[in-house]
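Suppose a colleague, Dr. K., hands you the sequence of a protein chain of 373 amino acids and asks what its three-dimensional shape might be. Before reaching for any lab equipment, you can write down a predicted structure in token form. Begin with the sequence itself:
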Amino acid sequence: MIAFARTDTSLVARWWWTVDRVALLLILLLVLAGIVLTMAASPAVANRIGAPTYHFVIRQALFVIPAVLVMIGLSLLSPDQVKSVGGICFAVFLLLLALVPVVGTEIKGARQWIGAGPIAIQPSEFVRPFFCITTAWALADARVRRNLTGYLVTVAMLVGVVGFIVAQPDFGMTMLVLGTWSVQVFVAGLPWILVALVVGGGLAGLVGGYLMLDHVASRIDRFLDPSSGDNYQIMTSLSAIQNGGLIGRGPGEGLVKAVLPDAHTDFIFAVTAEEFGALACLLMIAAFGGIILRGYMRMMQERDLFVVLAVSGLLGSFGLQAFINMGVAVHLMPTTGMTLPLISYGGSSLVATAAGLGMMLALTRRRYLEGTR
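The predicted structure, expressed as tokens, is then:
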């Protein structure tokens, strides 16, 4: 066990005594659970595509190393350093996001990835946490200076990010970015005239997506009226959850992973329910809730508006993504292609989520023990 004297003034020692160790433990437990569940869900998927049995398991385990290093590294930063890193990284990944329609790789009808040899990244995943930081910075500045410039800057950033994501297209990620931004502007106290414009724009975007994007219309129609189309994935997911019962069929005994193409990503919650049962699902939900509640409890002790807004956005994004993924699995909302953070297979999702949580841990450290900002 790591142990440091309270008189130790080294960077790591100060980090250890000021970081939320309970939240850190819950995050690491979810990462470990992600490897275990990927091992349960992915071999059948790998065999279907002709890959080695543990292809996805090995790749996910390798992604864990940079993810944990990124999270710990970012959690060492001060709020001012988080601002700087967040702004620079937002600009870099926004540029990559803009390049996706030009040089991106198309998978399943969507162009969301940029590949370089064996490595491929999904810029939209990385833009999201750094967008939270940059938006919080602009909103906090607007409140301090009492002008609309900061609000208009955030609206411009939102339009740019959403525009590039819609072009891919990725409607689920678009809704997640809009939801995250809405949390931040609500906390910041957005002027009512801008609230009306934003709500109107969001509704117009939703209607436009339904009218112009066939796959979006199809998903919404099938959600509202299951008889209007193919609902095989959702029905299979619900059947798996029901068959799992309270304690599950047992590790490796599930059937859903053999028939669902996205069992290791979009529907890993169904695999969890079938093989490990409702109790395991409740423990997973409790871990997600614990991270979010711990973060918000520490945030409420903050006086720095930037910290409050940034943590609100980062935790809102994390919690909303988890809710959407699990909600889809139990048919509470249309399918979106959203991964379960820290659990689902995917290097970009894992590392980007770790980056967001690392910045959250940095911003919620008990800085009064350090005596520095």
